[in-house]
Amino acid sequence: MSAPESSSLLRGFPFPFTDERFRYSTNVEPAGVPVHTAAGRWGAAVVDIDGEYHRELQERARILAQDPTRHAVPTHMRTAAWDATLTLLRELAASYPADMLLTRTGINRWRWENRRLGVEADFVYGDDATLPGGPLHWVANQVQEDIVLLDARAGQLWVDAGVVTFASAWSFGFDLGMSFLEIHGPVPRIHSEGVITRAQEFIRRLQPHQPYRRTNWGVNVGRRLDVSLERYPDWAPDRARMRRADDGSFGRLLHLRVEVQHLVRLPDSGAVMFLIRTYLLSFEQLATVEPWRRRTADVLAHLPDDIAEYKGVANLRDRAVAWLRAADAPPAGPAPH
Question: Is residue 332 in some structural domain?
Fold first, then answer.
C-alpha cells in the first residue's frame, strides 16, 4: 500500500502517548469529543472517514473475497448484526450529512445513499435478503473500521460475530466464540494488574447512546493493514529485513500503528459493538512533529521488555530510539576554517 499525502495523515493521526512512560490501562473516555494534537485533531466522530477511505475499502473487499471467514454472523447474532448496521448508518449520516443520507420509508423500511461510493439501497430491517451479503458484510464495505460484536452470557463477554480484515497479530476466525478474558490471555501484565477484569466490567455496564473509546498501539513494517495471524508468512519476514535496512529506508518503512477502538452498546439487541479503526504513520512522518518524535523515543526507550516483545518492537527498539533521537540532529554545515 503506497503512502498517502503526508499532511493529511498528520492532521488526523491519533497520537497515543500521553506520558513518557507507557503502562497498560483501560484508558477509556467518552467518544465523540475531539482531541487536539500537535499536528491537528482527531476523534470528533465515532466512524471516521479520511483520505484513505476508498483505498482501505478496496483492500477490505479484496481480503473478504480471498478469505470469507473474516466475516461471521452465527444465527443467534443476526439481530445484533442488524442493530450494528443501522447504528453505523445513523453515525455516518449524522457525521457526514453532505455525503450520507438515511431515510425511513416505512415500518422497518429504510433507504440509504452513500454518495462517496455511489451506493444506494432500499432495505427492510431484519430481512437479510434485502442487503447483498447480509447486513454486517454490506455495511463493513462502507466503513474503515473492523467490526466485532460481543454478546453477554454466563457473566462474561463473548466474541460472537464480526467483520475483521485488518487484525494486528491475532486471528478473528480463531477468536470467534471465545470469551473476552480468554482472548486477552497472551497480553502481558493485564491479568496480574487487574486491567482486563476491570475492562470487562466496564463494558458490561455500558449504556445505549453513550459510546466510549480507547487507543491501542504497536509498530508496523510498511503500510500493510492486514497483519493477521492468517497472513503471518507474508508479513513476518518484513521485520527481519528491517534489521538490514539503511537509515533512510528504516524511517520510511517503520510505522507507528494506532488503533482507535470504540465501544457501543447497541440499543435493540443489547450486544456491544467493538469498532477498531487502524491508522499508520511512518517514523519519517512522525519525526516531523517535534513533540511526537521526542515522546515516542522516550516511550520506546523505557518500555519493559515483555511489553516491547508483545508490541512487536523488541528487536527494533534500540535502533528505533536511536533513529528518532538522531532525527533531531541539524544537517552538517561547512567545515570550519
Answer: no
Residue 335 domain flag: no
Residue 27 lies in a domain: yes
Number of domains in the chain: 1
**Which residues are designated catalytic?**
214
Domain that holds residue 81: 6-326
pLDDT digit string (tens) for the chain, length 337 residues: 445 567 888 999 999 998 888 776 668 999 999 999 999 999 999 999 999 999 999 999 999 999 999 999 999 999 999 999 999 999 999 999 999 999 999 999 999 999 999 999 999 999 999 999 999 999 999 999 999 999 999 888 999 999 999 999 999 999 999 988 888 766 655 555 567 788 888 899 999 999 999 999 999 999 999 999 999 999 989 888 888 889 889 999 999 999 999 999 999 999 999 999 999 999 999 999 999 999 999 999 999 888 888 888 888 999 999 999 999 755 444 444 3
Neighbour order of strands in the sheet with 100-106: 100-106, 109-114, 119-124
**Residue 333: inside a domain:** no
